[in-house]
Amino acid sequence: MGMRMLLADEPRACAKVQTVKAGAKDTDKDAMKGSRRLLPGLAVKDGFTRHPFDAEYGVRTSGLVAGRHLKSGHRHDRHATAYYGVAPSVLRALVKRWRKSGPATSMIETTFVDLGAGMGRAVLLASALGFKAAVGVELHPALAAIAAKNVRIWRTAGRESAPTRIVEGDAVEFVLPEGPVLAFLFNPFGAPVMRRMLKGWKKRRVEKGAGLDLLYVNNEQEHVLEAASGWTRLFLGKVRRSKEDAIADHKIMANQPEGEYASANYEDCSMWRAGI
Asked: Given a cut of 60, is residue 78 above it in pLDDT?
């Protein structure tokens, strides 16, 4: 799929998300209807439960969509895991840990890039933390459209402290911005896509010498990074949710009709630094 940036005002149509069981322009209204039709997990009958983050900020990042329902027509569809918004407390804790790790440059000089951004919760959070810019890359057009609308709402409310954008496209094909980058993954895809993405990063940034760090939440493909050359792991461990996030995520998982996913009070996370 070719890349296309979605402007925030342009209308268009994992809790540890752990498996237990083995381009036309539309109106925002049409996009939301299309997401319910195409993405089981976003309607009340599918167990949809609103996260407090959405209630507080008036955005829409809630819902749990199994990977088998994330079909966009791209060759990487079969490697999609699931859509679920990261717990705000986990992301904030990881960014705080990253800031103490001695990155190449300060946060204000670093671009935050979420690969597999879904509806954009991590991007919204990052845009208010003090980064140079925040970018979300999402393959599924319905999720990308919702993320773009969320960015518009966030910006209108004055919560954006850095330029924020959503790009509809494949993480492997996306070219990282120039300058220091903090990449973010919430276990969006399987090992084949991870390997291709890392290979592309190394090829494109080898001569730039810019800092490249990675925050990885629910790090099921940790072995891919361990086998990749040029990466140093800075942290590996559990990051606990806040009490509010833990209660919310347990409630959301309990409402899933098929009981396909489970939640814990923490996320298995890692942090990496590239020497490429």
From this structure: yes
Q: What angle do CA 7, 180, 231 make, to 5 degrees?
A: 120
Largest CA distance in the chain: 51
CA 146 vs CA 10, 51, 135, 200: distances in Å: 10, 16, 14, 28
CA distances from 18 to 66, 67, 260 (A): 11, 12, 8
Residue 226: count of CB within 10 angstroms of its CB: 12
Instruction: Pick the more confident residue, 82 or 218.
Output: 218
- Res 206: pLDDT: 53
> Which among 115, 114, 274, 98 is positioned nearest to 194, based on CA atoms?
115
CA angle 93, 165, 204 (to 5 degrees): 85
pLDDT tens-digit series, residues 2-22? 333 444 444 333 444 443 332
Report the pLDDT value the prediction gives residue 203, as an integer from 0 to 100.
80
Bridge-based pairing state of the strands 164-168 and 181-186: unpaired
Cβ neighbourhood burial of 135 (10 Å; 0-12, 13-18, 19+): buried
